[in-house]
Specification:
Blueprint: H1 11-16, H2 27-40, H3 45-52, H4 56-64, H5 73-83, E1 85-90, E2 93-98
Antiparallel strand pairs: 1-2
Helix pairs in contact: 2-4, 2-5, 3-4
Amino acid sequence: MFATPKQPTPPLLAHLKADEGRRLPMNEAWAELAQLWCKRNNANSKQLADHLGIRAQSCSQWKTGNDDRQPTWIAVLQLCDELNMQVVVTPEGVKLKRRRKGKR
């Protein structure tokens, strides 16, 4: 039998360093979403946490990445839906972009 050569890490994952823990670096995107939501709703982080049904401490940790915490995808997608935003993953990183108007 022939040995299968190890496949190189895809450039996108290597650049994002996402394959180390199999997660995308979402803390900056979460911080931006949280700030947008709070501004739009004239609210603070505690009110955002209550809105999402999470602890205020989790909301704060997700923004900073303390203790290697990452936001849950359901929370990210909920805020994206409410703010008409989308998460875009490119070789340059993870960013937020306004969704186009029209049918969902």
